[in-house]
Amino acid sequence: MSKPLLETLHAGAGYLEKHGVEEARLNMEHLLAHVLGCRRLDLYLRHAEVPREDDLARLRELAKRRASGEPLQHLLGTVDFLGHELVCDERALIPRPETEYLCDLLIKASRASPPVRVLDMAAGSGCIGLTLAAAWPGSQVTLADISEDALDLARLNAGRLGLDAVRIVRSDLFEKISGGFDLIVSNLPYIPSAEIATLSREVRRDPALALDGGPDGLDIVRRFLAAAPAHLNAEGGIALEVGHDQGESTAAYAAARGWRDARTLPDLAGIPRFVLATAPARAAEAAAPETE
Question: What is the model's pTM?
C-alpha cells in the first residue's frame, strides 16, 4: 500500500542520504514537487495525500538517477536564475548561485545608466547575457561560446524569455567577435586540469570544456585578458567570475598588464571571486567597427 506524501518524502530523503546526496531532504522535496506539479510548500499542505502509483514510479526513477550522481537541475530540467526559468541540461555548465549574485551586482550598479553594448563571453546556457538583456532592454547584448551545443541551449533559453534580439555567435574567445563593447562579462573555465577528477560527481557531469582551465586554471583567463582590450570602448570594462582562490592573483595579473582599477568583489560567502577592471588606456583605438 502506498504511503502518504510526508512518509514518501521521508523515505526518499533517507534513500538519497544513504547514497551520499547532500541536502537529501531538499533534493527529495524538489523531485516530489516536480512529479506532482506543485510547489514544495504544497507537499506539507497535502501531507496526508496518498500519491498515485504512476507518480511513485516516476519518483523512484528520478530518485535512482539522483542517487547515481545525476544533478538535480538536470532532472528537473530547469533552474531559476534571478527570477528567470532557464532550461538546464548536460550541454552547458549548471548556473551557480555565485554567477547569479554577480549578475545582481552588475544590474544594481548600472541601474541608472546601463551599458549600451554588452558581451557575455563563454555564455554557456546564456544565464548571464540573457539576465542582463532582460534587465537592460535598451542594451545590445551578444552571447559567444565555442560550443555549438551550449549555444543551442542559449538560443532555446533566449526564445523562452522572449529575447530574440540577443545576438548569438560561435567563437573561440574573440576569434569571431568584432566591435567595441561597454561591458564584457564572463565565467570562463577556471578549474586546474588535475583537480577535475576530484570534483563532486555532480560537477563532473558539466561539460569538461566548461571546466578545464589548464594547469593552474587560468590559461583561458590570461588569454581573455590579453585579447579583451581590443574589443572594449574607451571606458569599457570587464567582470569575471574566477575560482575561490584566484580573485586576487587575477586582479594583480590584470593590473600588471595595464588594466585600470583592477579589483575584486566578494561573493555571498565573502570570497573575492569576482574581478572587475576598466580597459587599458587607448584600448578603444584598437577596437574595430562592428561588421555583420
Answer: 0.91
Q: How far is residue 37 from each of residues 41, 42, 90, measured CA to CA in Å? A: 12, 10, 23
pLDDT digits (tens, 9 = 90+) for 99-109: 999 999 999 99
Q: Is the pLDDT of residue 55 over 90?
A: yes
Distance, C-alpha 291 to centroid of its chain = 29
CA distance 29 to 31: 6
**What rounded mean pLDDT belongs to the chain?**
94
Q: How far is CA 183 from CA 129, 139, 142, 209, 237, in A?
A: 11, 11, 11, 24, 5
d(CA 190, CA 185) in angstroms, rounded, equals 15
DSSP state of 290: P
Taking phi first (over 0 means left), then psi (-120 to 50 degrees means alpha), and beta for anything else, what does residue 258 get? Answer: left
Using CA atoms, how far apart are residues 272 and 254, in angstroms rounded to an integer? Answer: 15
